[in-house]
Amino acid sequence: MNETQLIEGCKQHNPKAQKALYDTYARKMMSVCLRYGSNRETAEDLLQEGFIKVFSAIGSFEGSGSFEGWMRRIFVNTALEYLRKNDILKESVEIDNTEVLQEVDYSAIERISADELMELIAELPPGFRTVFNMFVIEGYSHKEIGDALGITESTSRSQLTRAKRLLQKKLEEL
């Protein structure tokens, strides 16, 4: 089945189409869940909850734009709901003047694999990791991050700055 057939099958609640859709996208969506979840078990829960939401909302997909992008948005929102519900950002501190980052040594990034970089990102504290993922990987603005997480733009900026600083330190230690 091609993507259009999968989508139509899922809109008709066809179990074979749903399984095929799951098999096609589970790995990619799991990587999204792992970036936001604190551990593999949480990520697996987010994956299942995300697919339930995809199957429930698939009737609203109109075919304009990327289906994978539409799904990714659902999975990111599912992860953000989980983080808000569990008050992951309760330790966030708002600061008005963000400390300036030292010049980043990009040669350290070139020496490690993408998987190693993702592992370093996964080691960040939850608030730092969430804002880093949303800003750097997903492309959200600080205003969008603030609105989604119930924090101010300056808190989002400070969390990103601290995440970058911590990543920089970890890279220097390699």
TrEMBL record:
Q: What protein family does this chain belong to? A: Belongs to the sigma-70 factor family. ECF subfamily.
Q: InterPro entries this protein is in?
A: RNA_pol_sigma-70-like, RNA_pol_sigma-70_dom, RNA_pol_sigma70_r2, RNA_pol_sigma70_r4_t2, RNA_pol_sigma_r2, RNA_pol_sigma_r3/r4-like, WH-like_DNA-bd_sf
- Name of this chain's protein: RNA polymerase sigma-70 factor (ECF subfamily)
Q: Which residues form a coiled coil?
A: none
Q: Does the keyword Transmembrane helix apply?
A: no
Q: Domain RNA polymerase sigma-70 region spans what residues?
A: 21-87
- Secretion signal, residue range per the UniProt entry: none
Which species does the entry assign this protein to? Coprobacter fastidiosus NSB1 = JCM 33896
- Keywords in alphabetical order: Sigma factor, Transcription, Transcription regulation
Name the source's superkingdom: Bacteria
Q: Name one GO biological process term.
A: DNA-templated transcription initiation
- Its Gene Ontology molecular function terms? DNA binding; sigma factor activity
Task: Outline the extent of the RNA polymerase sigma factor 70 region 4 type domain.
Answer: 115-167
Q: Which Pfam families match?
A: Sigma70_r2, Sigma70_r4_2
